[in-house]
Structure formats: C-alpha cells, structure tokens
Design a protein that fits this description.
The protein has a single domain (7-103), classed as Ribosomal Protein S5, domain 2, CATH 3.30.230. It is built from three helices and five strands. It has helices at 12-21, 55-71, 90-103; strands at 7-8, 23-26, 30-36, 43-47, 80-86. Strands 1-4-5-3-2 form a five-stranded mixed beta sheet, with helices on both faces. Helix 2 runs parallel beside helix 3 (90-103). It starts with 6 loop residues before the first strand and ends in an 8-residue tail after the last helix.
Amino acid sequence: MPESPMETLRNSRDFRRVIEGGNREILETITLYRLPNQEGQTRIGISVTKKAGGSVRRNRIKRRIREATRRNTAFLPAGEDVVIVARRGILAAGYEGIERDIRKVKRGSAR
C-alpha cells in the first residue's frame, strides 16, 4: 500500500489539543479545527459521533471524508494539525458535499 502524504492524528490528547486550541471553520457537512504544528506536515484526524449510527454508518462517513481529503490535499493547510468532525446530515449530502466543503477550506494560517 503506498504511503499517505499526510499523517494521521491518532491519540485523543492531540485531538483535544487541536479542538480546544485551534481555529474552527464550520461548513455544511463538516466542522474543521486547525492548529499549526512543529512537524511542518499536515496531520489529519477524523471524528464521527456515535449519534451518527452504528459502526457501519460511522465507518462509511469516515471513508468518505478520508477519500475527499486524499483527493483534495492541495486545499488543506500545510504544516497544520486538522481535525474534521462530521456534522449532522453528512450522509444526506453525500460524497460530493464533503468534497465541496474541503475545497472551501481557507488556505491561510490558522493564527
């Protein structure tokens, strides 16, 4: 499997740091939190609430977000930690809605 150009945020401490200390951007299908990091590389974390449904539905949402970010990395801020939180109605919007929102992300610095 080819290596991803972006790293993944895995531990809850990193998620919490970005959500509490970062800038928030509310879009139609996602809420995006971003915070500059020391690595100089974009790191992505995806969060889907259990209220979205069972594991099958939550994993489908995560796969769609992951694919949309992979295909649109040029629109994501470089050198920042990014946490993407799925909003209510993301399944109804479909993949195109997620991709459209990722393309709307502001490229400027979070600070």
